[in-house]
Design goal:
The protein is an alpha/beta fold. 46% of the residues lie in helices and 12% in strands.
Length: 360
């Protein structure tokens, strides 16, 4: 399968991009340090030896799932020790830096104030450790829709139409002839508008529960003159049940959903018997050991706590999968449980994501 990148691409660009993303990772890790200090997690770990999230939950009263994501982010950052992703230990040399505020000249945790998110969002994240209830994307304010659009938009605009869609069996032909498409979790509508301009004979529906995102999507569609699109403030459960869609997309959002199993079942009802579901999901490993090979793993777990897992726990009984919660085997099982029988993985050299062609 052809790669989106030319084999002669300048390696210096990749190295430079990695350097930039390490600074983003530092921003996210800084927020995690602030939460660890603010919630007394470092103090609870000091001198305790290896502890599990359940044991730390018993010590602190905080929810185990939130602690697990924080602990894994800290271990990935090298601030805690963990060989298995299940037991975590604060090294003794960390105590003067992260715990001993009144007696150590090395104390540094107080310098971190959670600047990766607005103060009111940081406050609510801290509360979530106690309540277990996460934040929706709208709870993080209108700026999040813009930020997600800026972060994910380039790959969508540059790779979706020329590279990803042609690799799916028959899909580009359907779109050229005139297909009915749904983008579930469409955000600010980048994918919908990009496809609408490329395939004027097709019609496109964007679904997202975020009022901020849909407002921005409608603005972007008007600016682009895309008359073959419509946007709906709805989640996957609100999809039509009549099998009308030739193509359904969920792009980097299934793991964010409180009930991804119900979303998959709804998509199965909405897609035609010969239709396709295109899934874009994070390159998640099947184990802690496999994930440790990711050089920005600390950012992945921290972003999960800030956004992905938080969104997935924003409703009672939410699945709380988080950023790395859908490795290929778990995703395939979810799709088959929903009634899909064909599951094909595509790798387009997207550094962060894999793509899946799923059919009834």
């Amino acid at each position: 399968m052809s790669s989106f990148f030319d084999s002669s691409i300048d390696e210096q660009v990749g190295l430079y991009a990695f350097q930039v993303w390490t600074y983003k990772q530092g921003e996210v890790v800084a927020l995690m340090i602030h939460l660890g200090d603010r919630l007394g997690l470092y103090r609870s770990l000091a001198g305790a030896g290896p502890v599990t999230p359940a044991e730390l939950s018993s010590r602190t009263g905080f929810h185990e799932r939130w602690l697990q994501e924080w602990l894994r982010s800290q271990a990935a950052a090298g601030l805690l020790r963990s060989e298995d992703g299940a037991h975590f230990e604060l090294p003794v040399e960390a105590e003067p830096v992260l715990v001993d505020e009144g007696s150590s000249l090395w104390f540094a945790a107080g310098a971190f104030r959670g600047a990766a998110a607005a103060p009111e969002v940081v406050d609510r994240l801290a509360e979530a450790f106690a309540t277990g209830r996460g934040l929706t994307y709208d709870d993080q304010g209108p700026s999040v829709a813009h930020a997600v659009e800026r972060m994910l938009g380039p790959w969508t605009r540059l790779a979706l139409v020329p590279t990803v869609l042609p690799a799916l069996d028959g899909v580009a032909r359907w779109l050229n002839d005139g297909a009915h498409v749904a983008d579930v979790g469409c955000g600010a509508g980048v994918a919908v508008i990009t496809m609408a301009r490329a395939f004027p004979r097709s019609s496109f529906d964007g679904f997202d529960p975020s009022e901020h995102a849909i407002r921005l999507a409608r603005q972007r569609a008007a600016e682009a003159g895309a008359g073959n699109v419509s946007f709906h403030i709805d989640g996957a459960a609100d999809l039509p049940r009549d099998g009308r869609y030739d193509l359904v997309l969920t792009l980097d959002c299934l793991h964010d959903m409180p009930r991804p199993d119900e979303a998959a079942a709804a998509i199965r009802r909405a897609v035609r018997e010969d239709g396709t579901w295109l899934i874009k999901e994070i390159r998640a490993g099947e184990s802690w050991e496999e994930n440790r090979r990711n050089p920005v793993l600390a950012m992945m777990y921290g972003t999960s706590l800030l956004s992905c897992m938080s969104s997935a726990l924003s409703e009672p009984g939410g699945a709380g999968l988080g950023t790395l919660g859908l490795p290929p085997s778990r995703l395939e099982a979810l799709c088959r449980q929903a009634g899909f029988t064909r599951f094909l993985r595509h790798d387009f050299d997207d550094p962060a994501n894999l793509y899946y062609e799923v059919r009834p």
